[in-house]
Amino acid sequence: MGNNGGASGDEHEAASNSRNQGNKAYHRHSNQQIHQLEKFFKECPHPDENQRRQLSRELGLEAKQIKFWFQNKRTQKKAQSERADNSVLRLENERIQCENLAIIEALKNVICPACGGPPFGEEERQRSLQKLKQENARLKEEHEKVSTLLTKYIGKSISQIDSLTPGAGSSHGVLTTNPGIDLERNPGLDNSQLVYKRRGILDMEKALMAETAASAADELVRLLRVNEPLWIKSPSDGRYILDRVGYEKLYPRDSHFKSSNARVESSKDSAMVIMPGMDLVDMFLDPQLEPGEWVIADISYDFMRDGSPSRAWRLPSGCMIQDKSNGCSKVTWVEHVEVDDRTQTHRLYRDLICGRSAYGAERWIASLRRICERLAFYKEETAAAREFGGVITSPEGRKSIVNLAHRMVKIFFASLGMSGKLDFPQLSEVHNSGVRVAIRKNTEQGQPIGMVVSAATSLWLPLSPQNVFNFFKDEKSRIQWDILSNSNPVHVISHISNGTNPGNCISITHPFIPTENNMLILQESCTDSSGSMVVYAPLDIPAMNMVIGGADSSIIPILPSGFVISGDGRPDTGGDSSTSTSSTGADSGGSLLTVAFQILVAGPNVTSSTELNMESVATVNTLISTTVLKIKAALNCSNLG
């Protein structure tokens, strides 16, 4: 079937409609409507039915009008592009014709020197010789630079590496190196020669990597120790950002991404953390700058220049650790990245991801403070004084519970990757992301063996992240959303603190279900300025007793579900969000809530995927959709789309 000159079915339908409605009155859109349509067209020139329906509601137009407007706009853009291409081609054709005429005229007057014609002029020969000398000096300088790097970091120079390669080396005193090896063009190279050749290439690559890392560390130390004039306060939120003009004068470099959507983000933050400097050094393996001070530097490096495309490129970033000799350390963090992810980011998360919150230094500092508190509380011998319930009586049992909760959280976040997913779209993409479902066959120890269905969805709520977190954290509210409690009240029988914030804790809950007396719920919740989470999983009483008794919790199968809460990245509008104290997006106009469930739908004896039909997937989809409706009703947000 031909493509009819590249026109799509929508364009043909638009042409047909225009012929059938030739005598009808035209409808002119308002300037506001045209502005909104133009703005949306720049981001998405081919909206689907849900997006057209959403635009029709927002602009007061019929869905058919929206459809025809986009069809006409695409046709107009295509015509403009074709006219521009034709103009360029005409100019190029005229230029080539002129060049051909000039070449023809020049050929008429050419005299070959080998046939007795005059040689090149002395002035021209001197210019050519001077150019060759400059190129030779540049190549020599490059060779000496790489040779110095190899000698410094590997202990041998290029000449030593090249001498290991049989048949390679110099010809008439000129060193020759080939960064790539083509077997078809080099049939004489055997396996041993290839090994030597690759070894030389890898040694050079290691030296360049070491030089890149050293330069990044030097730049990072300067960014960490200096505030003004390199760092200025953002007029929008008061956070430190790099002054681009001053920075690029000191460290000029080309942009890694050429897309018009690419952007550069920079941020700087510092805080005291409850951990001695040497313990943090053991975690990070940092180089020491001076007594009591260490630095860790990160930078992106395209090894051998053949890596897969990336949407983020890290410029010199990292942290400095300063030991304060009181059991604490001061950590200063710098994040500097170039990203091109706007078109890949869902509209629901675009303000958060593209608003300097996702890649900010504040997130690293907040997470590091919370983790250091968790480790400090984990090691503290008097931690039992902050627990209640009397269920956990030994330090071994407490550590076993903490380790099990930690593994539960890791499994939960690993499940959010969802390879081989199925999508159930929602009518509104403004407040919902749709339900995403994945099926996997688990064979790993520590999780139930068999077929597991994972489902997740994200939605926007007009409430502060702290209020949403408090709702899920409160055991009295659990009856309003948790299917495990079966609409029955629950009772917390044990509680372990993980930090100074009351929301950072591990709890064991017992639901009062008359028909089920053998189930407990293990839950871990945590919160900081970057966001919050509540992760939980059911466990039977015998398994919980084993863990409380201090047994190895790694053998206990667990399948967690939970919630992830963050700010929406939008500016505070003065509503409910005013109660938040976050500095990285939680004090925004609303919250982004991700709900994720995991359910074991078949045992280990399933031999083929045909035994698990779409009914199980539909059941999980219904389950998560019902839970979302309950959450909205409990939070008085049922009117959201």
Automatic annotation (TrEMBL):
Domain of life, per lineage: Eukaryota
Disordered, as annotated region: 1-31, 567-587
Assigned keywords, A-Z: Coiled coil, DNA-binding, Homeobox, Nucleus, Transcription, Transcription regulation
Domain spans labelled START: 202-251, 252-377
Subcellular location: Nucleus
Record protein name field: HD-ZIP family protein
Cellular component GO terms held in the UniProt record: nucleus
Family annotation (Pfam families): Homeodomain (PF00046), PDF2_C (PF25797), START (PF01852)
Coiled coil: 122-149
Domain Homeobox as annotated: residue spans: 20-80
Higher taxonomy: Eukaryota, Viridiplantae, Streptophyta, Embryophyta, Tracheophyta
InterPro entries: HD (IPR001356), HD-Zip_IV (IPR042160), HD-Zip_IV_C (IPR057993), Homeobox_CS (IPR017970), Homeodomain-like_sf (IPR009057), START_lipid-bd_dom (IPR002913)
DNA-binding region(s), chain positions: 22-81
First-listed, main subcellular location of the protein, grouped into a coarse class: nucleus
Keyword Glycoprotein: no
Family affiliation: Belongs to the HD-ZIP homeobox family. Class IV subfamily.
Regions of compositional bias (Low complexity) in chain numbering: 574-587
Any GO MF annotation of the entry: lipid binding
